[in-house]
User: Fold these one by one.
Assistant:
Number 1:
Amino acid sequence: MESADLVQHTSRRFNEDMERVRTRVMEMGGFVEQQLQRAVTALIEGDSALGEAVARDDYRVNQMEVEIDEECGRIIATRQPTASDLRVMVAIIKTITDLERIGDEVEKVGYIAARLATMEKPSDNYREIRHLGRLVTEMVHDALHAFARLEADEAFEVARRDRKVDDEYEAIQRQNITFMMEDPRSIRRALEVMWVVRALERIGDHAKNICEYTVYMVHGKDIRHLSLEDAERQIRDVARGRRGG
Amino acid sequence: MSQQGAHGPGEGHTFRPHDEALADLRSRAHQMGTLAAQQVETAVRALLTADGEAARHVLAREREINAQQTEIEARIFALLARSAPVASDLRRVLAISRAVTDLERSGDEAKKIARFALSSADRPDGGPSRVMHRPLRRMAEFASESMRVAVDALDRGDPDVAHEVARLDREIDLEFEAALRQLMTVAMERGRLLGPVFDTVFALKSLERIGDHAKNVAEHAVFLASGADVRHAGRADRDPAAADRRH
């Protein structure tokens, strides 16, 4: 028990376990990202087969979540990680929950894309959705990047972009209402578009959550219910306090 | 490394140092869940009676729910780090940890409904159409009921109510689909007042999500009791026609 060898041995095994789990999280993230891109493409190109394929493939995301989750439970039970290692485990468990939810939102977009493919396209060819889709896809990508490299500053930067996503979301919904008033025949399509925009907005929220877990992992601070400004200020204060001694 | 192994994990007769902490977690989760169920009821009542005061009350209590989540998670973390529970104790801790996320998200949805209630309270025609009152009320009843049932089940570690909660969730979904169809007609007729129609769609959607969260909590109770993960079971081979109705 007291043997330093044994402690080292245990921690090395823990590190190996953790590396394996982190790799799987990144695989899951990569797949979710790809799903998101395919869903937006299916919508814009009016490709119903692609939309259906995206929806169908969501089961793989679910599978990965369950597997990683079980693996984390096993590691916590058998390796009994120290506080800072445990923080990483918690962040991973939370991250995969959000990735799974992103998968669910993408699945919806897939189904809707398949349905919309049978309707007439709007004159702007979903320009706004394309834009919002790009913003959100980049957010997911960069959030995972920050997560993988434990980059808290990058995570803050990505989290801040969620405001832009929210603004875009509001603007598109307002525009959508105008379209519907001008042309009641477009209501069916406009309602479908509304769900897509809503799903994309939620994906932005989930990407922001992942950024918050990265900050938690790096700084040990739970910033979820703080404003980003307050969170950053508090973390800087702590860092300054440490440096000042 | 820890002392737990010697006791035969999960036997429950020997006093373990984290028993108290576990009991404390249970009661906190139950309290948070009860609050989440209340929030749904109050938010929808505020919406249907144009009661701005009640809506503000929901918004204030939402901060309380968030604080409860933070507190519970901090305690879970301390428990895991200090006493490394295993077997059924670990399952309970993990189940509570997941449930808390669902409860917080359910609280978030109630908050959105309360915001709609607040913004429409002092505006004539700003709220949901008359025909939407009944579906909103019924969905709120189903949602808060299933949340209560699920939270009780989690507390008792009772896997048997999962079916009941799933049944309530289907009721909510049916009600949701019917309301949406009806709302299309309202949208066509209302012409200039589409803003409140949109807000109503989102309120209905929030209630539908709360039903999903309740179902998740019930699944965490099953996980707690059996160790089996029932999430996503049967989802992969979902009937595409049924899935088509999803939004």
Number 2:
Amino acid sequence: MSSVLARFNRGTRGIATGWTLGQVLPLALLLTPNVAFAQQSGTGAVPGGGTSAVVKAPEPAPEAKQPVVVMPEIVHFENAPYPPEAEKAGVQGNVVLKLTIDKDGNVTAADVLEPAGNGFDEAAQAAALKFKFKPATKDGVPFAVKIKYSYAFTLKVVEAPPPPPPTHGEVDGRLFIAGTEAPLAGAEVVVVSPDGKEQRVTSDGSGVFKLPQLLPGKYKLKINAPGFDPFESEEEVVAGEAIDVKYRLAPVSEGLEITVKGERPPREVTRRTLERREISRIPGTSGDALRSLQSLPGVARPPGLAGLLIVRGSAPEGTAYFVDGSDVPLIYHFGGLSSVVPTELLDQIDFYPGNFSAKYGRKMGGVVDVQLRKPDTKCTADYGKPTDKTGCFHGMAQADLIDLRAMVQGPLPGKNWTFAAAGRYSWFDKWLKPVLESAGSSVTAAPVYSDYQLIAEHNVSDSRTSLRMFGSDDRFEVIITDPAAQDPAFGGSLRFGESFIRGQVVNEAKLSKSVDLNTMLSIGRDQIHFTLGQLKFDLDLHPIYWREELSAKVAKGVKLNAGLDFAMSPFKVLVRAPRPPRPGEPAPGPFASRPLLQSESSGFGFRPAWYVEAELQPLDRLRVVPGMRLDFARDSGHADFSPRINARYELIKGAGADPGAGVPFQRKTVLKGGAGVFDQPPEYQETDEVFGTPNIKSNRSVHYSIGVEQELTRHIELSVEGFYKDLTNQVARDPNALGGGYTYNNLGTGSVEGIETLLKFKPDERFFGWIAYTVSRSVRRDSPTSEEYLFQYDQTHNLIMLGSYRLGRGWEFGARFRIVSGPLDTPVVARPSLPAIYAADAGTYVPLQGKAFGSRLPLFHQLDLRVDKRWQFKAWALSAYLDVQNVYNHPAAESFVYNFDYSRRSYQTGIPIIPSIGLRGEL
Amino acid sequence: MKTAGIMSKVGLLALGLLALGSAACGPQFDPSNEVKTLRVLGVKKDKPYAQPGDTVNLQLLWHDPKGRADADVQRAFIGGCVNPPGDLYYGCFAQYGQTGAPPAIGVGDTFQVTLPSDIISSRTDLELGQTRYGLYIVFFAVCAGKLDFVELDPKDAGSTGLPLRCLDDAGQPLGSEDFVVGYSSIYSFEGVSNENPSFTVDDAGRGQYLLAGQAVTADCVGNACQGAAAVEVDCDATPERCIKACADDGDPSCPAIDLKPAIEKKIEKDEVSSKLFRTTVTEQMWVNYYVDRGGISEVRLLNDTNSGWNERYRGQLRAPKDTGPMQVWSVIHDNRGGMEFSRVTLGVVK
């Protein structure tokens, strides 16, 4: 039935349905001998008889003059209505009737001889009674007859009239969360027609929405969902067509935009790049970008509040910090609570834990290169909805328990010029002092810091020029009113200040299709001031950094990079300190009141370096980067040559990373490895004529690493890397044979070995997180004949699990849990009977120490939680966060403290539970 | 370029000070100058700098708050260590072993040593141009039990601990509360001497203190302080010697009272350092304060090599909560081994 009806209902546009009567074929049947059975067939408008009509012609009378009989002839056929039920059921039928026709041609009776049921009988009877016949005649005289009549009901396939042209179209849509296959339910879809009228629908649980009956034309679709960026699109509706559309909505974006340059082919074995959302949301870091580095594999936990980066078993001074290639002396403000460049000003942080490119040098550990962002001038409409327009201003202000900060950015007069300006000032010393006083501390001061950044940038299609000025200032002052017995002069005013400023020009120019020239020039000033009573240390430098790199694609799969990395600095240093004891000199007494030596010197530090590197891609999946670097250090008088090589091979080529592209996902497998020499010149004081030993050579480290990166799903990647560092020529100090003082040498050696594992869920619009586990061992030996010992910062196990989830409606919740081997300690041992011996002349006890760093404190573990809430208003946004470090207030042991004769000891514990609350407004 | 390494070291020093001072996350031990266990407060030499062949007399100053009889507290000296390698005291252990002869041993509160006449000339490890000197080290031990030598375990070879222990009546080793070991160094420079610092005394040889500006006579000065009898304080008769008890021991809200011993402003020129640095260098001097109850400042600088005499060397005294006598010791040091002692007993009243 349905197929029949479908034939009627077929059409593409609003086809009117209808039905037609079956062609009825009247059939006169002769019912009795007296009744002329007639067969009629009709054509055209007169339905013809059916095949079942039987008409017998009268038999002619033998030889007698036969009468002429004319059978009745229908002159009016009455169409019987097709019984609805039968029509619905698609049933046809044939009813045989006996019709009694009088001599006037009227049907006086219609009897059913062969019923067909289904309502056909009644319908046929009723219709037949309305038939009108030309009466039967015998020799021209009408007479009554009875005839058989077959009334057939047939469903006629009638050619539907051509459908009217379609007048409407339709949009069938499906909404997803960007970057995933997850449907977006409950989103409001507003359709604005060409004449401006609006229609609203809501996506269902499968993210589906339908917009039927749309007149042809251009429609604007606006999609809004709480917690997601508004989306707009224009669709052309065509009459008679249904458009299938799929939209992916991104969660609400924040004022800060950081682009991940992950697509840059790596020049090193491992580069860990943190995305904006990861940077600003890791619990326990108060949103500080550079503190987030401490949650990466290969980075050891620093002691207490120390702002140190301890990378793959190297000393903190073995890691270099750059801001767009310019060395900075400090990456964290005092106490490690905050880094010197605020998160808002960052575009990206690249962290190289080892085996880094020849572009970087003078360090044995790792490299942190921070890139400042391009000023944001993109315009937004109401509720932060992005637009394509630029030339708008943005502002931000934030306050938390530690500091206050603000930022403004926007266009400058002059085509293609933009600017950003930011500043930050700490205020926690204001509330910390009463806390310390109430705790009875003799130190009731806290550091004060500030930092500032100013950027002006010019961007055109083939070049970028950025002018920057940034700097930082840290100060700490405390009055020591009660000096310790060990050093009676160790009292009075302690002042410590450090500041740096950089003026920097960065230029990236595309000289041709295959040649790039990148230039960085920075001039600055670094100042360090330290005073304690009469002791003084003043260092004033004017560092100049110049980097130039020419990159040229010389052939297919061959790119050469050549560059120079110059570091120069005129300096002045003033030291007023107790002269170090000379060999054989008797114990001069308590430190601080020894005869002072004032030494003033000035000079010019010069450390140029040249490097060349090739990025080779002999096969589509293989990338090899050999390089070499030559460094010279004027202060030590030594040159260092460092060859390096690293390689990446895509064992299984990945595909389908973007689910929206419709390409099936193929897990990528990458093998990687590298080896290289990394030299680090001695520290300034180690080669100083007065305080050190001139002419000692650079520390040397040879890195080896091998690893694999395996995509498990579109979002989950596992990375395992083994590393080994062979340390030679390490600067060590030897106590002088006659006691008192040290001599520096290059007899130290050591090694670091370990495995880093990172299981990462790549950030999508809901979640990011990772599990990082590092097992490592770092040892040193001060000379070939001395005993090997664990390095001070060795941490055998370091497990970090963290994640952050967007709950929707502007809420986000994150947690970080860490389990780390306890810090090392040099134990005091009671051998053979007491832990210390009394030095009567000084009046103090000298501890009897065991093996250097020979014992380990208990395991460290800590849970940090973070909650964020964002409100998006029409013209601005407000964010609030609560970041709680050490949620269950675990008193982590950081070191031992002893009483005066070392007979009792207790743990010095780390930070207690610290909640940090912040509020931030953005325009 | 240069700053990163310097920054990390100097910055860590400053942060270390903050960490040391912050009481929020660290334990609180009793101050080192509250004498609550058997303690050695000083070893005085009559010739802190001696010449080759000189005889030097050493005097021990010790105190036992448990008041055990002298006979129950063994005191011993061990001499005979001359010019140990590296001038390190534990270099003496090997020396003792090498000579085969037992070191010189004395018992009691005093000891006498004679420096070898070749103590300077026998040194062969000094470089040309270095100041020539000799070093004699004397060890001492004070044990509220029985002193015993320890057979060193091979695994303790190279240990810097003195191979002595103190046993109780049951033969069990006693700890730091009842046993102290230490050492004192006697330097010998050709033609250079050093006098001990001294307290200002009256004609009768009595020292004096100013307690809240009031003059108070010391119990003793110098060697006489060892074994000096306890002094009864009559606060009715000598109210200037008495102070009011605090509400509680260590109560920081209890007002501090100035206590200042009269010390002679006798600053000697440090001949050795003056020659070394080619400028006049004076000796460093400081005073350590000790109490058996209540509290007092631990140390005050008397003479700074660079800034000179410090007249503000008074100790800040806080009374205990219980009434009764309170003993305060002042021990003056100089950085050339010189020392002097003094004691005063105060009364604590409600």
Number 3:
Amino acid sequence: MGIFDRFKGNEDKNEAKPDFSGVQSGGSSTAAPPAPTGPVAATAAGRTYVVVKGDSLSKIAKHEYGDPNKWRAIYEANRDLIKDPDLIYPGQLLNIPEP
Amino acid sequence: MRHHSRVLTAVLLVAALGTACSRPSASPAPAPAPAADTAVRVTDVDLGRAVGLDKRVTDKSDSFTPSETIYVSVRTEGSASNATLKARWTYEGGQLVQESSRTIAPTGTAVTEFHIAKPGGWPKGSYKVEVFLDGNTVETESFKVG
């Protein structure tokens, strides 16, 4: 194997590096967030939820609030993402407003 | 005369003891610790496919399919007005997948979950999630996607 071939081999390895730019992440805690230390603007709640296969808005509402009937709150908070409340997709990252 | 000297000795002894007791101690007592603000510690870290309302992993696993959402649940004990937990997800030789953090003010036992999903599917291989508390690594868990 010549120098050029070895260089080409390295190039191929670099190309094989997977792309993680589309990864969605989130988190939530049973602990409260720290109290604000200064005047802050009202912000949306930081909770998020990643839709998995078999989810529906009512199922998520039951998971997050313990009440499936509160699905509309999630729908309203994600109107830019959800066109039809009966159609959500695995991998979608939804904002979960405070109940 | 003998009686007088006994009384005098007793008086001197009491005076000497009083002086000794009022003398400042050689090593002063340490100042009280600040209100339990550094007492938070991570007691458990679990990986899995789902979490419950209590944020604990309900389906523990260290092996996932490419389409699954991966959860890490971090249990902490203690109180703090401000503690930051971070999950750093890496692939194979250390390629950064995602990093997310959450600042909490726990008062006792708390559970914080982080999750990642990749709509196009995870590349197969070995991954790690490193959990940090206030910038210090506290636990590393390995898992596979295959």
Number 4:
Amino acid sequence: MKPLHELSIAEAGARLRSGQLSATALTEHALSRIASIDARVHAFVLVTRERALEDAHRADQELRAGLDRGPLHGIPYALKDIFDTAGLRTTCHSKLRIDHVPAEDAFVEAKLRAGGAVLLGKLATHEFALGGPSFDLPFPPARNPWNLEHFTGGSSSGSAAAVAAGLLRFAMGSDTSGSIRGPACFCGAVGLKPTYGRVSRRGTFPLSFALDHCGPLTWSVEDAALALGVIAGHDALDPGSADEPVPDYTARLKEGVHGLRVAYPRHHFADAEGTSPEVIAALDAAARTLTRLGATVEEVRLPDFRLFSACGRVIMIAEGHAIHERDLRERPHDFARYTYQRLILGATLSAADLTQAFRLRRELTVTLNQGVMKHHDLLLTATGVGPAPRLDEFPPDWPLKMPMQTIPYNVTGNPALTMPSGFSSTGLPLGLQLVGRVFDEATVLRAGAALEAALGVRDRRPLLAASPSR
Amino acid sequence: MDKAGPEAASPLERELDLLMRRQGITVPEAYRAGVLAGYEDLRRMTAVLRQPRPAESEPSNVFHLDALLRGR
């Protein structure tokens, strides 16, 4: 019999509804695992034990009374500590916000509460979703459950670590240039950056208004589909929010990939500096698997990766600097080293630099969506170009160079899912990325589910997570 | 930032110092090397942005009144 933390959201939900399991028992199990494991992983910056048990008790009462709030009713989750939680400290993992207690929930948190989910706590992040991995912050950085000496990826570091360590099935993250997909990749989890505007950013501390996306990190593709169905939707008070209907993302999840046309820009990662042969081999294997499953996979060429990277990075640094401009000048020493070094660079950008970046953004978005994505249902590419590096490999004067292929899809806004593709020779997870047409998360998830079943990597868990809970 | 003196600073360092001085920013000494390394990277990127394009090529953030005024 599966331990409770290995039940999928759907499996747990079925047992909650049949009375075989209570939300209280599920939550107590999660809290017990957090107590026994998280001292090594540092995924959490705040565990909300009392709130979690209250949420669970309420869920049990409601389900017994026949009130069903949806697929996340009674399911434990946690939030990256940039999502506002009314009455609960929201620090952005920064000294500058260490005492900040918001009065209102973020839009996503309000949806999760309305959906009856059970809040376990707030999760580690890079400072302001940018500065990490850092040891000069109020809380330690999260560690990779597959090898505690290794980086989780960021900035949704705690979210990925918590999922990988089996502390919960679903965590919220945010993604500006890869901050959901990068950590999900390095930690062997599933991470979904939805289409820009699919999930409201309101109440989530911004890094870049033009590039920020909110989305789930989960253990499986089905879990991600269920979570997206709850958090997606129009928010009239988020200027970037899309007024698009929210489909049932699970309706066609098991239909497979037969007949789908998949673009494969192999040059983007195979020609990139530092790409591991293991990553290339795993992606080629995934492409062959998709073909075996009935999809048509075609090599294509995309615009040079450096164009996407330059475009996204300039926008992110300019907007991030504007957001933090006053504190950067008045309180430079209250930032962690990496955060300061990255954000202060916005002061060197000109108005013409930013305008050119936004012009390039339109060009790249149109090129991708009216070119390759017009003739293909999906795009298969790399997430990380190698496994997670060691934490002690990061020098003090490290500019923002992440070994990731994620930023293009922040620039264009297309939905992008990362999922495990295999393991490196050192036992660390490798990931692949599936990119879809705008607002077609359903096809991305469907292909992800098919690949997940075919690749068979979900049964392997970090040894850390196999430790018995007390 | 130019603690080493103008004659010892590289052209890139002098450029960065000028930009920061113009903004009234004093970069803490301990962060200086990292900021310089990041600036070198950023300069490469801003050059990449300058692809040939016609004057009428619009940015992606054109002003949309409907998005601005909804929900109010």
